């Protein structure tokens, strides 16, 4: 089995207790996992991940984080 090269943001410091999202390419698929639970892996295409990131940067998903009643 081929070893997966997981990468995390340079903004995440090294060491234990630092939760972050890690990314890896597996063939033509992008795999994502949280460093706190590396057994759970989500996969997507680069195009779909790019669209998600663009939506986040544009604020199109901010309503999902809003606290009801505020």
| Unreliable runs | none
List the secondary-structure elements in sequence, H or E. Answer: EEEEH
Considering DSSP H and I runs of 4 or more, what fraction of the residues is helical?
10-25%
Number of self-contained structural domains = 1
- DSSP, total strands: 4
Mean pLDDT value: 87
Number of helices: 1
Largest sheet, in brief, is: 4 strands, antiparallel
Overall geometry? globular
Over the alpha carbons, how many angstroms does the gyration radius reach? Answer: 15 Å
Distance between the termini: 50 Å
Strand content: 25-35%
Strand order of the largest sheet: 1-2-3-4
Instruction: Find the structural class using helix and strand composition.
Output: alpha+beta
Protein name: DUF397 domain-containing protein
Domain DUF397: 5-57
InterPro entries: DUF397 (IPR007278)
Organism: Streptomyces rhizosphaericus
